[in-house]
């Protein structure tokens, strides 16, 4: 007699998917309720990698990860098939299962979204996914499996009860009959399938549980940015956060009288920007942006294709090496603070760098990122307002339509991007700041 045990947690949707598959196949099993906030020795032993449920233990052998478990169930108990027998249709079903796995992070972002902007952004992403699912996946069928449910229905089977609860908690309804009529009908049909009807958490209990979970997630993701109004480095972090619709608290630092928090959390450079995410400090603007990109992969700021990604990273590095304004050794700083022959030389070098950027980096594209901005545009974004002001203060114009037509057009396009248009220093204030700074630097050099 074979032994089948399922380790789960009452409110977990992944665990329910496994229940549905086992029940549809008539496989008897024993259930072990785990406390996911106080994991058992057995759970840790069975799933040392992810340390989570569901875990199916078949004759003493543990299988983890719901999709792997579902495939195992299908192969081990082939009765009442949950995948098409035909290889092509099986591949298509697997595509949609993978689609569900790949897009899960967007639903997580939606669940933990706060603030109108962030919610709107996350809702838009989820709606797009649901639309693809309705148009390309479900089509005119009753279920993804046709007249009866299959593994694809099971994988998306959390949409009826769990996603509905999420929508209530976030306060945004997406899966509606008016916008997604076929997917909405699928939800109603799925709820009528016996194994689903009989095996889902009590809605009120689920709501209460999900509410606590959401509050925890939000508390864990508190986000605070220490910046300074004049800094292109803190501005670029603001652009990245806003592009991704991530809510954050902003602390303006007086760089001549830094807060103890900045000194405590960035003891090495004592500089802004400093990002405090759930109390953990991240500093150096580009490192912060890469961190944001990894934590919130929606609205990607780097191409997905590895080669394109490598090219983007090259230009990020190129900017770090050449197109920056942070140390006295760099050409842009020399152009700003030097006079006479020395400045002429620096201007020539800056022009050469900008030419490389235009010819080799930007090419014929609107943005470095193509039609929309990416990490490379964000990194070079200071060329728009800050460098222009520097040119005015110095009295030498380098980035002109006549000499650098495409880079010049890029600057204009960049200024029109909403997050950039709405987040840059006041030009007059910036001019006054740079003018004063240059006067000081020039006086120091001549004394
Ligand atoms: N490489 C750093 C540069 C940051 C930086 O230079 N920040 C300046 C403001 S624009 C700063 O905090 N200066 C204060 C100081 O140097 O004491 C980054 O990308 O974050």
UniProtKB/TrEMBL annotation:
Cellular compartment(s): Cytoplasm, Cytosol
Gene Ontology MF term list: glutathione transferase activity
Record carries keyword Phosphoprotein: no
Predominant subcellular localization, coarse grouping: cytoplasm
Residues annotated as domain GST C-terminal: 86-212, 305-434
CDD domains for this protein: GST_C_Tau (cd03185), GST_N_Tau (cd03058)
InterPro entries reported in the protein's UniProt record: Glutathione-S-Trfase_C-like (IPR010987), Glutathione-S-Trfase_C_sf (IPR036282), Glutathione_S-Trfase (IPR040079), Glutathione_S-Trfase_N (IPR004045), GST_C (IPR004046), GST_C_Tau (IPR045074), Omega/Tau-like (IPR045073), Thioredoxin-like_sf (IPR036249)
EC number: 2.5.1.18
GO BP, sorted A to Z: glutathione metabolic process; toxin catabolic process
Entry's Gene Ontology cellular component terms: cytosol
Pfam families registered for this protein in UniProt: GST_C (PF00043), GST_N (PF02798)
EC class of the enzyme, as a word: transferase
Keyword flag Cytoplasm: yes
Alphabetized UniProt keyword annotations: Cytoplasm, Detoxification, Transferase
GST N-terminal domain span: 2-81, 221-300
Catalytic activity as recorded in UniProt: RX + glutathione = an S-substituted glutathione + a halide anion + H(+)
Membership in a protein family: Belongs to the GST superfamily. Tau family.
Annotated protein name in UniProt: glutathione transferase
Organism listed in the record: Dipteronia dyeriana
Taxonomic lineage: Eukaryota, Viridiplantae, Streptophyta, Embryophyta, Tracheophyta
């Amino acid at each position: 007699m074979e032994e089948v045990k399922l380790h789960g947690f009452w409110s977990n949707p992944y665990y329910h998917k496994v229940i549905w598959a086992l029940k549809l196949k008539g496989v008897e099993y024993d259930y072990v309720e785990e406390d996911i906030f106080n994991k058992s020795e057995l759970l840790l032993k069975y799933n040392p990698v992810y340390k989570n449920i569901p875990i199916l233990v078949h004759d003493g052998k543990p299988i983890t990860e719901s999709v792997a478990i579902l495939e195992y169930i299908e192969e081990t108990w082939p009765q009442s098939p949950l995948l098409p027998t035909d290889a092509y249709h099986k591949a298509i079903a697997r595509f949609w299962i993978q689609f569900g796995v790949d897009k899960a992070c967007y639903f997580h972002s939606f669940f933990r979204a706060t603030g109108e902007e962030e919610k709107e952004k996350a809702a838009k992403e989820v709606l797009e996914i649901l639309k693809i699912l309705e148009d390309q996946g479900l089509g005119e069928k009753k279920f993804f499996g046709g007249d009866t449910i299959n593994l694809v229905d099971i994988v998306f089977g959390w949409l009826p009860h769990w996603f509905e609860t999420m929508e209530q908690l976030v306060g945004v309804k997406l899966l509606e009959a008016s916008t997604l009529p076929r997917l909405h009908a699928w939800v109603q049909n799925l709820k009528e399938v016996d194994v689903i009807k009989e095996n889902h958490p009590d809605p009120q209990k689920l709501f209460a549980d999900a509410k606590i979970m959401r509050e925890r997630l939000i508390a864990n993701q508190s986000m605070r940015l220490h910046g300074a109004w004049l800094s292109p480095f803190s501005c670029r972090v603001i652009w990245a956060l806003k592009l991704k619709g991530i809510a954050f608290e902003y602390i303006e630092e007086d760089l001549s009288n830094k807060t103890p928090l900045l000194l405590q959390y960035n003891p090495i450079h004592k500089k802004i920007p400093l990002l405090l995410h759930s109390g953990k400090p991240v500093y150096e603007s580009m490192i912060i942006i890469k961190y944001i990109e990894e934590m919130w992969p929606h609205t990607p700021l780097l191409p997905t294709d590895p080669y394109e990604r490598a090219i983007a990273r090259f230009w990020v590095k190129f900017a770090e090496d050449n197109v920056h304004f942070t140390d006295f050794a760099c050409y842009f700083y020399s152009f700003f603070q030097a006079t006479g022959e020395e400045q002429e030389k620096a201007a020539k070098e800056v022009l050469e760098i900008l030419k490389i950027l235009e010819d080799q980096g930007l090419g014929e594209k609107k943005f470095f990122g193509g039609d929309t901005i990416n990490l490379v545009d964000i990194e070079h974004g200071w060329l728009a307002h800050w460098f222009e002001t520097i040119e005015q203060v110095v009295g030498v114009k380098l980035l002109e339509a006549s000499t650098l037509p495409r880079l010049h057009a890029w600057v204009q396009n960049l200024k029109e991007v909403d997050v950039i248009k709405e987040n840059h220093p006041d030009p007059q204030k910036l001019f006054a700041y740079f003018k004063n700074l240059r006067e000081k630097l020039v006086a120091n050099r001549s004394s």
